[in-house]
Write a structure and sequence with these properties.
By secondary structure, the protein is an alpha/beta fold. The chain has helices at 3-17, 82-93, 124-138, 156-165, 189-193, 215-225, 270-285, and strands spanning 29-34, 40-46, 57-63, 97-102, 144-154, 180-184, 202-207, 228-232, 247-249, 262-264. The protein contains seven helices and ten strands. Helix 6 links the parallel strand 7 (202-207) and strand 8 (228-232). Helix 1 (3-17) packs across helix 2, helix 1 (3-17) packs across helix 7 (270-285) and helix 3 packs across helix 4. The two termini are 28 Å apart.
């Protein structure tokens, strides 16, 4: 990558991650959707300001990780985290609407990250249900371009992309289905043990140094199921976070080395590359320009 090109990407990444992009003018709308088992699923909806309210536009359904949607400390506490806000800004600037289902707080949880897998009450079956509830709601919205709907998930949300896209169980499908799905560093071990087959194209963005949700099972799953993936060198879990640095998280019980914690944090080179790759993958799938 040429230095100037890298500088432009890194500057955009930091600019968006600090919440200084398109969403500074785009005010989110909170919706409460009737979900499974009587749950009122809360979703945050962001619309690009350059489009008329009922104009059809592509939609990205974004799925948070085990830490939930919101920043827990600092000036952004209670708002979308820097990574979630940054990606939202980036997508809004391209003319996409962005919808964030909150799978944790309606279930009285704020984070799953320090819970063992066995003790978690919010499971991938819940995340899959939330995705289907959101897609069914999108089918009723005049502004949804039903031919251009994507899923985008991180970590636990990346695993939710896999769970939602699995075509092997015979389940009713929502009337709107994604035609592309992108998963940042999902946990792939469970899907690898099953006869997983994606119902729509799935692309995985993986950190080569990830010791929380290791890349190797995802590479094997991609090869087994015919999914595309990209492996980013020298990149830990959360490498696309636009703020912070790599840290050791000793209280996370799950990971490649149980009992020894995990590492997570930004890579200032591969993070911006991955965000640019997201835009290019969407444009490749939806070649008509959407930004106005």
């Amino acid at each position: 990558m040429h230095f100037l090109q890298h500088l432009r990407r890194s500057h955009l990444w930091l600019y968006m991650g600090l919440g200084l992009g398109a969403s500074a003018l785009a005010q989110p709308v909170a919706e409460h959707l009737p979900g499974a088992d009587g749950l009122a699923l809360k979703v945050w909806v962001f619309h690009p300001t350059q489009r008329a309210p009922d104009t059809e536009r592509p939609v990205v359904v974004a799925l948070h990780g085990c830490g939930g949607m919101y920043a827990t400390v600092g000036s952004r506490k209670g708002q979308l985290s820097a990574r979630h806000q940054g990606m939202t800004d980036l997508l809004l600037a391209q003319g996409y609407s962005v919808v964030w289902p909150d799978s944790l707080t309606p279930r009285q949880e704020t984070s799953l990250c320090e819970q063992s897998m066995a003790s978690r009450k919010v499971r991938q079956s819940h995340r899959r249900s939330d995705v289907h509830t959101t897609l069914a709601w999108l089918a009723q919205q005049a502004w949804t371009d039903q031919q251009r709907v994507a899923l985008l998930g991180w970590s636990h949300g990346g695993s939710a992309v896999l769970a939602s896209s699995d075509s092997t169980p015979k389940r009713p499908q929502p009337s709107v289905t994604p035609n592309v799905a992108l998963a940042f560093y999902p946990g792939c071990a469970d899907a690898l043990r099953q006869p997983y087959q994606p119902a729509w194209p799935v692309h995985m963005l993986l950190g080569a140094a990830d010791d929380w949700t290791p890349a190797a099972p995802c590479v094997a799953l991609g090869q087994q199921a015919g999914m595309s993936f990209k492996l980013y060198p020298d990149s830990h879990h959360g490498f696309d976070n636009p703020v912070g640095q790599v840290q050791h998280l000793p209280r996370v019980p799950n990971g490649q080395n149980p009992g020894r914690g995990v590492h997570a944090g930004r890579n200032p080179v591969t993070g911006p590359q991955a965000w640019q790759d997201v835009l290019e993958l969407l444009k490749k799938r939806w070649p008509d320009p959407v930004a106005q």
